[in-house]
């Protein structure tokens, strides 16, 4: 019988894309979700206005390999660390989280130190996002 890590590598990468907080703009998240799907990943799109609790619950229920968060509202310094804390509390701290949106450089540095694995701002290429997602998922398995 294959080990859990070996079994994990045999299925498509499962990624949850979520929009935490009150931000109502999801075009960027949908574009990224489509690029990940086109690259062969299984994408679960959680939709707009998700709480950190809803995001983590969906990640656990869907058994995702990684989580992508998109934000434009400016609440990233509150919401992203909460998602990370809830993942750890639920013994899923090994699920990599990447983020995109309007995030100032100093905040991005702080978020990386807190555990966000990659941050993509305006102008990031879809190819770079796909490559990073693949790398994060491979490193986890």
Largest sheet: 5 strands, parallel
CATH class: Alpha Beta
Residue windows where pLDDT falls under 50 for at least 5 positions: 1-8
Shape: globular
Q: Write the element-wise H/E pattern from the N-terminal end onward.
A: HEHEHEHEHEH
Number of strands: 5
The helix tally amounts to 6
Q: Percent helix among the residues?
A: 40-55%
Structural class: alpha/beta
Q: In the CATH hierarchy, what is the superfamily? A: Cobalamin-binding domain
Sheet with the most strands: spatial strand order: 2-1-3-4-5
Distance between the termini: 16 Å
How much of the sequence lies in strands comes to 15-25%
The second-level CATH architecture is: 3-Layer(aba) Sandwich
**What's the mean pLDDT score?**
92
Number of domains: 1
- CATH third-level topology: Rossmann fold
Radius of gyration: 14 Å
Notes on the structure:
The protein has 141 residues and is an alpha/beta fold. The chain has one domain (12-140): Rossmann fold (3-Layer(aba) Sandwich). 48% of the residues lie in helices and 21% in strands. It contains six helices and five strands. It has helices at 4-8, 27-38, 52-62, 76-89, 105-114, 126-140, and strands at residues 14-20, 42-50, 66-71, 97-101, 118-120. It has a five-stranded parallel sheet, sandwiched between helices. Strand 4 (97-101), helix 5 and strand 5 form a beta-alpha-beta unit. Helix 2 packs across helix 6 and helix 3 (52-62) crosses helix 4 (76-89). The longest helix has 15 residues, at 126-140. The model is unreliable at 1-8 (pLDDT under 50).
């Amino acid at each position: 019988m294959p080990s859990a890590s070996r079994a994990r590598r045999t299925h498509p990468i499962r990624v949850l894309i979520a929009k935490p907080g009150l931000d109502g703009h999801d075009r960027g998240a949908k574009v990224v979700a489509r690029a990940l799907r086109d690259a062969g990943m299984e994408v679960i799109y959680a939709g707009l206005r998700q709480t950190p609790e809803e995001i983590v619950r969906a990640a656990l229920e869907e058994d995702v390999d990684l989580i992508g968060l998109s934000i434009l509202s400016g609440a990233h310094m509150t919401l992203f660390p909460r998602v990370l804390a809830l993942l750890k509390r639920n013994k899923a701290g090994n699920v990599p989280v990447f983020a995109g949106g309007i995030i100032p450089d100093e905040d991005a540095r702080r978020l990386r130190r807190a555990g966000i694995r990659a941050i993509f701002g305006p102008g990031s290429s879809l190819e770079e996002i796909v490559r990073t997602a693949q790398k994060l998922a491979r490193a986890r398995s």
